[in-house]
């Protein structure tokens, strides 16, 4: 364990949370001199303190031990990197804009891998001036249904949670192009690209 790297990471994470050394120390019932020692690379946290430190700073213990975050965690996410997660235990839907480690109901959840729509999961799209309406000819039984529909554009996520015995349909505010996603609880995540509308002369609006 590199005490200098660990200390620099603790310093960076503490500052991200706008905490002073004393505030962090008080949260952990230790002295602020101990925090200062860590951050100057003069020592590393005791094993008995790592669990509480990871909770206060909001990172996994192994990241503290390595003294660095993955590059995807250091950078701000963007909508092009959107990932969807669905908990098999409670059907909870989660998203991230970058590589993340998520868990729910005691399980680690892997990101869903989208597939291009097929005949069984064909997304019908109708557009008017302001909205986009989507519908699927898909059964909505309790054991086989569409869990959610989402529309991703360059700067926003619109998501509609669906439930058994509803119609498999949703309405979204229209934007200039994006990607539609639907998730079938049996067959996974499906997507359809929505092209930007073209104005007269052939150029996208």
UniProtKB/TrEMBL annotation:
Q: What keywords sit in the KW lines? A: DNA-binding
Q: Where is the HTH cro/C1-type domain?
A: 10-64
User: What InterPro entries does the record tag this protein with?
Assistant: Cro/C1-type_HTH, Desulfoferrodoxin_Fe-bd_dom_sf, Lambda_DNA-bd_dom_sf
Q: Which CDD domains match?
A: HTH_XRE
| Cited Pfam families | HTH_3
What this protein is called in its record is: Helix-turn-helix domain-containing protein
